[in-house]
Protein backbone atom coordinates (compact mmCIF):
# COMPACT_ATOMS: atom_id res chain seq x y z
CA UNK A 1 0.00 0.00 0.00
CA UNK A 2 1.52 3.35 -1.01
CA UNK A 3 1.42 6.12 1.54
CA UNK A 4 1.81 9.86 1.13
CA UNK A 5 5.22 11.17 2.15
CA UNK A 6 5.55 12.95 5.47
CA UNK A 7 2.99 11.02 7.46
CA UNK A 8 3.23 11.88 11.13
CA UNK A 9 2.87 9.28 13.85
CA UNK A 10 2.16 10.76 17.28
CA UNK A 11 2.33 9.17 20.71
CA UNK A 12 2.07 10.49 24.27
CA UNK A 13 4.91 9.53 26.62
CA UNK A 14 4.69 9.88 30.40
CA UNK A 15 8.11 11.38 31.19
CA UNK A 16 11.53 12.40 29.87
CA UNK A 17 13.36 9.10 30.62
CA UNK A 18 10.64 7.14 28.83
CA UNK A 19 10.81 9.60 25.90
CA UNK A 20 14.60 9.21 25.71
CA UNK A 21 14.23 5.42 25.57
CA UNK A 22 11.61 5.67 22.81
CA UNK A 23 13.81 8.04 20.79
CA UNK A 24 16.76 5.68 21.21
CA UNK A 25 14.69 2.75 19.95
CA UNK A 26 13.39 4.79 17.01
CA UNK A 27 16.90 5.82 15.94
CA UNK A 28 18.14 2.24 16.39
CA UNK A 29 15.33 1.16 14.06
CA UNK A 30 16.59 3.51 11.35
CA UNK A 31 14.66 6.72 11.92
CA UNK A 32 16.74 9.86 11.55
CA UNK A 33 16.93 12.18 14.55
CA UNK A 34 15.65 14.91 12.23
CA UNK A 35 12.45 12.85 11.77
CA UNK A 36 11.73 12.68 15.52
CA UNK A 37 10.33 15.62 17.47
CA UNK A 38 9.49 15.97 21.15
CA UNK A 39 6.69 18.42 21.85
CA UNK A 40 6.21 19.54 25.42
CA UNK A 41 4.95 23.10 25.21
CA UNK A 42 1.67 24.60 24.03
CA UNK A 43 0.94 22.66 20.85
CA UNK A 44 -2.66 23.51 20.06
CA UNK A 45 -1.98 26.02 17.27
CA UNK A 46 0.80 23.93 15.78
CA UNK A 47 -1.27 20.75 15.54
CA UNK A 48 -4.32 22.60 14.25
CA UNK A 49 -2.19 24.17 11.50
CA UNK A 50 -1.10 20.67 10.48
CA UNK A 51 -4.71 19.66 9.90
CA UNK A 52 -4.97 17.41 12.97
CA UNK A 53 -8.65 16.87 13.93
CA UNK A 54 -9.82 19.19 16.73
CA UNK A 55 -10.62 16.29 19.06
CA UNK A 56 -7.05 14.99 18.82
CA UNK A 57 -5.58 18.49 19.20
CA UNK A 58 -7.52 18.99 22.44
CA UNK A 59 -6.56 15.54 23.75
CA UNK A 60 -2.85 16.08 23.04
CA UNK A 61 -2.93 19.62 24.45
CA UNK A 62 -4.39 18.28 27.73
CA UNK A 63 -1.68 15.61 27.89
CA UNK A 64 1.10 18.15 27.39
CA UNK A 65 -0.44 20.49 29.98
CA UNK A 66 -0.21 17.69 32.55
CA UNK A 67 3.53 17.27 31.93
CA UNK A 68 3.53 14.44 29.42
CA UNK A 69 5.52 14.59 26.18
CA UNK A 70 4.18 14.23 22.66
CA UNK A 71 6.51 12.42 20.28
CA UNK A 72 6.10 13.06 16.57
CA UNK A 73 7.77 10.68 14.13
CA UNK A 74 7.87 11.60 10.43
CA UNK A 75 7.40 8.55 8.20
CA UNK A 76 7.76 8.20 4.44
CA UNK A 77 6.00 4.88 3.84
CA UNK A 78 3.72 2.21 5.30
CA UNK A 79 6.61 0.19 6.72
CA UNK A 80 7.92 3.19 8.67
CA UNK A 81 4.43 4.01 9.94
CA UNK A 82 3.96 0.46 11.24
CA UNK A 83 7.46 0.44 12.75
CA UNK A 84 6.90 3.78 14.51
CA UNK A 85 3.54 2.60 15.91
CA UNK A 86 5.08 -0.61 17.26
CA UNK A 87 8.12 1.11 18.80
CA UNK A 88 6.01 3.81 20.45
CA UNK A 89 3.60 1.21 21.82
CA UNK A 90 6.43 -1.02 23.10
CA UNK A 91 7.88 2.00 24.92
CA UNK A 92 4.69 2.92 26.73
CA UNK A 93 3.24 5.55 24.43
CA UNK A 94 -0.49 6.15 24.65
CA UNK A 95 -2.95 7.76 22.23
CA UNK A 96 -0.90 6.73 19.19
CA UNK A 97 -2.27 8.40 16.08
CA UNK A 98 -1.18 8.76 12.44
CA UNK A 99 -1.88 11.75 10.25
CA UNK A 100 -1.11 11.99 6.52
CA UNK A 101 -0.42 15.68 6.09
CA UNK A 102 2.72 17.27 4.64
CA UNK A 103 4.95 18.40 7.51
CA UNK A 104 7.97 19.90 5.79
CA UNK A 105 8.67 23.39 7.03
CA UNK A 106 6.22 23.13 9.92
CA UNK A 107 7.26 25.90 12.34
CA UNK A 108 7.54 25.34 16.05
CA UNK A 109 8.60 21.69 16.05
CA UNK A 110 11.63 20.96 18.20
CA UNK A 111 13.79 18.52 16.29
CA UNK A 112 16.08 16.20 18.23
Please, how many helices? 4
Number of strands: 4
The first-to-last residue Cα distance is 29 Å
CATH class of the domain at 7-38 and 69-100: Alpha Beta
CATH architecture of the domain at 7-38 and 69-100: 2-Layer Sandwich
How would the global form be characterised? globular
What are the low-pLDDT stretches, counting only 5+ consecutive residues below 50? Answer: 103-112
Mean pLDDT: 85
Question: Topology as H/E string?
Answer: EHEHHEHE
Per the CATH scheme, the topology name of the domain at 7-38 and 69-100 is Alpha-Beta Plaits
What structural category arises from helix and sheet content?
alpha+beta
**Strand line-up of the largest beta sheet:** 2-3-1-4
Report on this model:
The protein is an alpha+beta fold and 112 residues long. The chain has a domain of 64 residues: Alpha-Beta Plaits, CATH 3.30.70. Helices cover 39% and strands 22% of the residues. The chain contains four helices and four strands, in the order βαβααβαβ. The protein has a four-stranded antiparallel beta sheet. It starts with 6 loop residues before the first strand and ends in a 12-residue tail after the last strand. The C terminus is likely disordered.
Amino acid sequence: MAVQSNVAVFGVIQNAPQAAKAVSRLTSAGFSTSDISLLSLSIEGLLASMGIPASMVQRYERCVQTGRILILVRCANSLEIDRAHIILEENGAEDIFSHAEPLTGTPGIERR
